[in-house]
Amino acid sequence: MVEDAEGRFCGAVVACDKEAVTLEDRFGRRRVFPLTPAGFLLDGRPVTLVRPAAAPKGPRRSASGSIAVEGLRARVARESRIYVEGVHDASLVEKIWGHDLRVEGVAVEFLEGIDDLPGIVEEFAPGPGRRLGVLVDHMVPGSKESRITARVSGDHVLVVGHPYVDIWQAVKPAVLGIPAWPDVPKGVPWKEGVIAALGWRMEPGEAWRHILGRVGEYTDLEPELLGRVEELIDFVTDPTADA
Q1: In terms of C-beta density within 10 A (0-12 exposed, 13-18 middle, 19 or more buried), how is residue 133 classed?
Q2: DSSP letter at 67?
Q3: What is the pTM of this model?
C-alpha cells in the first residue's frame, strides 16, 4: 500500500511495467502513475518502487501452495462432499483450493447456515466411501454452532470450524490495507457493521467481491482457516474411507 508523491491517491500495487505502476484503492478504483525515483510515499516517506525480479523456475504452484497439475482434467466427482455455510465461504474455498479439489474430484456445496445441519446430514446418508466434511463459522465453546455440530459428528462426518464470526475475517487485514477487522456492536448485522466502520460505500455483495479480489493465494488467509480446510480435504479423500 503506497500513496502517490503528492499524497492524493492511496492504494495497493496491482500491476507494474517498465514505465508505470497501477494502484487500486479500497473502493476498487485504479490509477496509473509513472515509475519514477522517489515517486511514491510509504508511511509518509518518499520511496522508489522497484520492479520484482523474475520468479525462479520450478514447479508451478496452485493458490493453495500445492504443486499444480499441468493439463488437468477434472476427475469424476467423489460421493464424498464438503459443505460450507454460505456462498462467500464457497467462493473463497474455490479460489484457493479449487485446483486441488478438481484434482481430487471433491465438490463443495453451501448450506446457507447450519440450523438444519442434522437433517441435511441425515439426508446425505454418510457411510463408507461417502464421507461428509463440514466447515462452520464461529466455532467457539458454548456457541450455537458448537452445540449443533456435536449432534452430527461421527466416523464418516467431520465438522471443523474457525473462530471468526464470518468468513470475511479469515482474510488477513493487511491484504485489504486495514490495521484490523473492526469490532461490531451487538445487535448490528456484522457485515453491515463492518462496511460502515470501514467507510465503504458498498452493499455486502459488492464488498465481498472487493475482498475476494484482493485474495491471491493461501498466504492471504489466516492459519485458523487454512488448517481446517486442509483437514477436511484430507478427510474426504482418505484412501481408507471405503473400508
Answers
A1: buried
A2: B
A3: 0.71
Strand order in the sheet with 107-110: 107-110, 81-84, 132-136, 157-161
**Chain center to CA of 175:** 11
Extract the runs of DSSP E, i.e. beta strands, from 56-209: 81-84, 107-110, 132-136, 157-161
Q: Which amino acid is at 13?
A: V
For residue 75, the number of C-alpha atoms closer than 13 Å in the C-beta half-sphere is 11
Let me know if 99 is exposed, middle or buried by CB neighbors in 10 A (0-12, 13-18, 19+): buried
Digit-by-digit pLDDT tens for the chain (243 residues) are 788 888 788 888 888 877 888 888 776 777 888 888 888 888 778 888 888 776 556 667 788 887 777 665 655 678 899 999 889 999 999 999 998 898 888 999 988 778 888 888 999 999 998 999 999 888 877 777 778 887 887 889 999 989 898 999 999 999 999 999 999 998 999 999 999 999 999 999 999 999 999 999 999 999 999 999 999 999 999 877 655
3-state secondary structure of 221: strand
